[in-house]
Fold:
Amino acid sequence: MKEHIAHSGAWGLALIVIVVASWLLYRYLAPKTWKEWAEVAGKLAEPRYITFTEKPGSGLTPRK
Structure:
């Protein structure tokens, strides 16, 4: 069962698009100062704390 899978050969183009899009996003959306970086890091970490913090009555605590 050796089937040949045809590829379009667009991996190079895909890589170029990813690099250019990443550069543009970093260039125009990245924070400028360390204080802004810290704020962004806190906002990104917050959902993890909310998700993994046990709250009484939230369904994670066994009911007695």
